[in-house]
Design goal:
Radius of gyration: 23 Å
Oligomer: single chain
CATH topology: Proton glutamate symport protein
Number of helices: 19
CATH superfamily: Sodium:dicarboxylate symporter
Distance between the termini: 50 Å
Strand content: under 5%
Shape: globular
Helix content: over 70%
CATH class: Mainly Alpha
Bound molecules: aspartic acid
């Protein structure tokens, strides 16, 4: 059985077990099931896995991007990749939020709904755009890495790569070493991925046991329109772009991206999914490392189509509930704000609500309105994160194709880069061979 099937089974089993626990009220605060299973085993295994994924992000982005810059062959290409991906990311986000506003307006969601906010949502503000720009250059790269500031890390990695190129031949050994480090990180991705079926099970069992799914039915019009637009964006808008701009087959793409989507769905974090998105885009879709090492982390940070869709639908929903007419200019502001807000905020769970509070503040909608959708947001975050990373993958493929950096035979091969447990198997012979080399080197070193 391949990994995708196993992860899929883990996901469905997790949802079913979570539902059983939730519906039979076994998740009450003092129950043993809750203590040992939901908050114990499921919570711990799920968190361990998310930590393991996050652990890979910074070194993987750093090493793969330095390799990417050094191996790009023509440094001008980097500027083109940057420009194209930036424009496409903004374009897909704008399309996403415009579709969302259109659909929510057509269905007039929220009209006639009487809801009272139970929770008082206090909006946090995302950093202003000037700060986002200033922080692209890290005053302390180590601190940027410790904080996981993706744009700063990308900047530092590119600058390091360019400087290595300037040093030239003398840096050959360094380039090789970083290449090996990159390979080591990719092996680590495989090791972590091999745990996915169990971890995905635990993550979903915990979330569904805690929240249940009946929350979704309470705001049915909001949830239904939001999910419909998310699916439309994933299956129609993004696939049309892939087909028209990239001349790539959407069916193959959708089959290959499934694994990464499930990771995004279970972790609700585009950032934590970077290692899996990167592996999928390079090894399954055939995008060259020089493109993917930039577009994937860049996309995880600035491209959030699913989140933008939530903002569009939520704005119309809450404006209707409060009987506020935003008018055309109001909705145009929503589109602009959603696109801008996505640039400065990282792809982590729940960040969409922070962005939404910025949009609301801008168009004058009451912030406490966000309290109405707070309850369902955790579950919807999972779906929109899967859409977010799909957008990153589509843009990566389109940009790579346009620059002749996509291996078509890999893209077309259904088995290319497929995960196989063998990849994490440590065989005794190679282990021994490496140990022998190291021992020989040490004994030949003078003074030993
Ligand atoms: N969780 C989303 C992501 O990581 C962001 C959001 O919509 O809250 O992409």
């Amino acid at each position: 059985m391949n990994l995708t099937t196993k992860v899929l089974i883990g996901m469905i089993a997790g949802i079913i077990i979570g539902l059983i626990i939730n519906l039979s009220h076994l998740n009450t605060a003092h129950s043993l099931i809750n203590y040992y299973l939901v908050d114990g085993l499921f919570h711990t295994v799920g968190k361990l896995f998310v930590n393991a994924l996050k652990m890979l992000v910074v070194p993987l982005v750093l090493f793969s991007l330095i390799c990417g810059v050094c191996g790009i062959g023509d440094i001008k290409l980097l500027g083109r990749i940057g420009g194209k991906s930036f424009i496409l990311y903004l374009l897909t986000t704008a399309l996403a939020v415009a579709t969302a506003i259109g659909a929510a307006t057509v269905f007039d969601i929220g009209q006639g709904v009487h809801l009272v906010t139970q929770s008082n949502f206090t909006g946090k503000s995302a950093p202003p755009l000037t700060d986002v720009l200033i922080n692209i250059i890290p005053s302390n790269p180590i601190q940027a890495m410790a904080n996981g500031d993706m744009l700063s890390i990308i900047f530092f990695a590119i600058l390091t790569g360019v400087s290595i190129l300037l040093v030239g031949r003398k840096a050959e050994g360094l380039v090789e070493t970083i290449g090996v480090l990159n390979e080591v990180m990719m092996k680590m991705v495989n090791i972590v991925m091999s745990m996915a079926p169990y971890a995905v099970f635990c993550l979903l069992a915990k979330t569904v046991a805690d929240l249940g799914l009946d929350l979704l039915t309470q705001l049915i019009s909001y949830v239904a329109v939001l999910i419909a637009v998310l699916l439309f964006h994933l299956f129609v808008t993004l696939q049309t772009l892939l087909l028209v701009l990239g001349r790539l087959n959407p069916i193959i793409f959708l089959k290959k991206i499934r694994n990464a989507q499930i990771f995004a769905f279970s972790t609700s974090s585009s950032n934590a999914t970077i290692p899996v998105t990167f592996r999928t885009v390079t090894q399954r879709l055939g995008v060259d490392n020089s493109v993917a090492s930039f577009t994937v982390p860049f996309g995880a940070t600035i491209n959030m189509d699913g989140t933008a869709i939530m903002q569009g639908v939520a704005t119309v929903f809450i404006a209707n509930i409060y009987h506020i007419d935003l008018g055309l200019s109001g909705y145009l502001t929503v589109i602009a704000m959603s696109v801008l807000a996505s640039i400065g905020t990282a792809g982590v769970p729940g960040v969409g609500l922070i962005m939404l509070s910025m949009v609301f503040a801008q168009v004058g909608l009451p912030l406490e309105g966000i309290g109405l959708i707070l309850g369902v947001d955790r579950l919807l975050d999972m779906v929109r994160t899967a859409v977010n990373i799909s957008g990153d993958a589509v843009v990566s493929a389109v940009v790579a194709k346009s620059e002749g950096k996509l291996e078509q035979s890999t893209f077309n091969d259904p088995n290319a880069g497929i995960f196989d447990l063998q990849q994490t198997h440590l065989d005794q012979e190679s282990e021994k061979a490496l140990a022998d080399i190291i021992q020989q080197q040490q004994s030949s070193e003078p003074g030993r």
